[in-house]
């Protein structure tokens, strides 16, 4: 699915918000920081919390590396291309170090490459994986004391990263990580290695933060985790994931609750029942399948078969209100035959997803699939990806076209430079671009009638 703001937008006018117990944190003369983020929503939210730690230590955030005394780069290594970018970006930062700037690498590439980063880029002073973010204050103190080789690379932890201050980028929708790391062992994935073991945040702490968010004016909360529905409350309350969803939706002021990413093996009927019973839980589930072939799923160590996955889909299709379903698919996994790929295509026909994120398999360091034989040539992976995406494009066009004439609630998140044009998300996570004569709609909920549809977004008009 596309992001909103398909057309050029004015910068959001409302300032970013801070949440947390120390909202009035001192902004002191310690220095300035620039933080650049790549990768998933978890990384985006980690950066919001890292920024919060820095702000509470008296740093000030700036818009360019030139204006910063501390440059931080939060990295992603889920695909080879993303990891390659890191060293080219660090090359760009090299000259900045001679201006007296301190440079740090955070996130998955930091964890994966470890101290080798100091060898390849000796101008870097901090290398820190996400499982060590809790120790950031101590690491910053070391940097401030002039230490040039500071590391945080321990993944053996049962703690989650909670901050007193979080600097959120979006003024209406707040990310909130409820589970970190991953205990699954998909054979292609770096996450268990880079983010460490699965650990859940206490339910009372989550709910306290949601109440704070509501007080700050946030109306949409998105609960995050690599396997968000594997949530296991560490408190004696032992709240189930579905109970937590309902409790978050019950917080006064919260109007929409989303969650991502769900793992099919832990996707149980009580989650669907919760969505059925509470309209504030959004009617959208992202349920990555990765392949339509049970043989490939076994090789991927995905812990479910095609049929078991389809049972979860059927569970959602039987729900009392429609639920939009999106997924992730990898093509060209080692050993994927043409027949396996055909099974993935037939799965698309069977499920008719509302959105799809698709990727070519890319071998990653420290993953079991690295040792698998039978690689698929790059051109063949590209061919399969193109076929898959074309099929999904047709499906999405048809599904979106079927919505013409219907009216949906939209949280308005963007305004076009073109007069009277606005953009937002429906509860099913569709982008809806629409016309309205209203003067100011950003951050509000409006009703929009769909008048047109493309594969990636809808077009409509504001219903007064
Ligand atoms: S469930 Fe699999 S793909 Fe997802 S983070 Fe865990 S190991 Fe990676």
Q: Spans with pLDDT under 50 lasting ≥5 residues?
A: 1-29
Gyration radius, in Å? 22 Å
Looking at the structure, what is the overall shape?
globular
Order of strands in the sheet with the most strands? 3-2-4-5-6-7
Could you give the count of β-strands? 21
Structure explained in plain terms:
- This protein is an alpha/beta fold.
- The protein has helices at residues 41-56, 80-97, 108-113, 116-120, 136-144, 191-195, 203-215, 241-249, 269-277, 294-300, 306-317, 338-351, 378-401, and strands at 17-20, 31-37, 59-61, 70-75, 102-107, 126-128, 150-152, 165-168, 173-177, 179-180, 199-200, 220-224, 256-260, 284-286, 324-331, 355-360, 407-415, 421-425, 431-435, 445-453, 458-462.
- A six-stranded parallel β-sheet has the order 3-2-4-5-6-7, sandwiched between helices.
- The protein is globular.
- The model is unreliable at 1-29 (pLDDT under 50).
- Bound molecules: iron/sulfur cluster.
Please summarize what this structure is:
This protein has 464 residues and is α/β, with parallel strands linked by helices. The chain has 13 helices and 21 strands.
Output the keywords.
globular; disordered N terminus; alpha/beta; binds iron/sulfur cluster; single chain; 5-stranded mixed β-barrel; 6-stranded parallel beta sheet; 464 residues
List the helices and strands and how they pair.
Layout: E1 17-20, E2 31-37, H1 41-56, E3 59-61, E4 70-75, H2 80-97, E5 102-107, H3 108-113, H4 116-120, E6 126-128, H5 136-144, E7 150-152, E8 165-168, E9 173-177, E10 179-180, H6 191-195, E11 199-200, H7 203-215, E12 220-224, H8 241-249, E13 256-260, H9 269-277, E14 284-286, H10 294-300, H11 306-317, E15 324-331, H12 338-351, E16 355-360, H13 378-401, E17 407-415, E18 421-425, E19 431-435, E20 445-453, E21 458-462
Parallel strand pairs: 2-3, 2-4, 4-5, 5-6, 6-7, 9-12, 12-13, 14-15, 15-16, 19-21
Antiparallel strand pairs: 1-8, 10-11, 17-18, 17-20, 18-19, 20-21
Bound molecules: iron/sulfur cluster (SF4).
């Amino acid at each position: 699915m596309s992001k909103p703001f398909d057309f050029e937008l004015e910068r959001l006018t409302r300032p970013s918000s801070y949440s947390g117990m120390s909202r009035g944190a001192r902004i002191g003369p310690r220095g300035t920081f620039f933080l650049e983020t790549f990768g998933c929503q978890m990384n985006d939210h980690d950066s919001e919390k890292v920024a919060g730690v820095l702000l509470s230590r008296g740093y000030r955030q700036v818009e360019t590396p030139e204006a910063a005394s501390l440059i931080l780069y939060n990295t992603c290594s889920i695909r080879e291309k993303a990891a390659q970018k890191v060293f080219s970006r660090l090359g760009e930062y090299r000259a900045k170090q001679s201006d007296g700037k301190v440079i740090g690498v955070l996130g998955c590439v930091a964890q994966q490459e470890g101290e080798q980063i100091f060898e390849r880029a000796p101008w870097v002073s901090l290398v820190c994986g996400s499982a060590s973010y809790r120790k950031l204050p101590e690491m910053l103190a070391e940097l401030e004391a002039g230490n040039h080789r500071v590391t945080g690379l321990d993944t053996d932890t049962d703690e989650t990263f909670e901050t007193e201050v979080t600097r959120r980028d979006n003024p209406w929708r707040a990310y909130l990580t409820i589970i970190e790391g991953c205990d699954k062992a998909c054979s292609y994935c770096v996450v268990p290695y880079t983010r460490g073991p699965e650990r859940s945040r206490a339910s009372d702490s989550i709910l306290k933060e949601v109440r704070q968010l509501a007080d700050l004016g946030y109306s949409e909360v998105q609960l995050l985790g690599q396997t968000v529905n594997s949530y296991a409350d560490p408190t004696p309350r032992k709240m189930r994931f579905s109970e937590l969803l309902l409790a978050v939706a019950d917080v006064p002021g919260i109007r929409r609750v989303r969650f991502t990413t769900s793992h099919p093996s832990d996707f149980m009927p009580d989650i669907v029942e919760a969505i059925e019973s509470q309209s504030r839980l959004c009617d959208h589930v992202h349920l990555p399948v990765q392949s339509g072939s049970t043989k490939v799923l076994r090789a991927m160590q995905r812990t479910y078969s095609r049929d078991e996955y389809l049972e979860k889909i059927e569970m959602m299709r039987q729900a009392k209100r429609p639920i939009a379903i999106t997924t992730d698919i990898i093509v060209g996994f080692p050993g994927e035959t043409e027949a396996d790929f055909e099974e993935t295509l037939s799965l698309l026909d069977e499920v008719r997803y509302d959105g799809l994120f698709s990727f070519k398999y890319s071998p990653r360091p420290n993953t079991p699939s690295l040792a698998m034989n039978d690689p698929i040539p790059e051109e063949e992976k590209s061919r399969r990806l193109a076929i898959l995406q074309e099929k999904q494009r047709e499906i999405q066009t048809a599904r979106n076209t079927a919505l013409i004439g219907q009216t949906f609630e939209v949280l308005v998140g963007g305004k076009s430079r073109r007069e009277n044009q606005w953009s937002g998300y429906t509860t099913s996570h569709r982008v809806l671009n629409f016309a309205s004569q209203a003067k100011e709609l950003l951050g509000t909920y409006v009703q929009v009638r769909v008048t047109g549809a493309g594969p990636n977004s809808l077009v409509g008009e504001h219903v007064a």
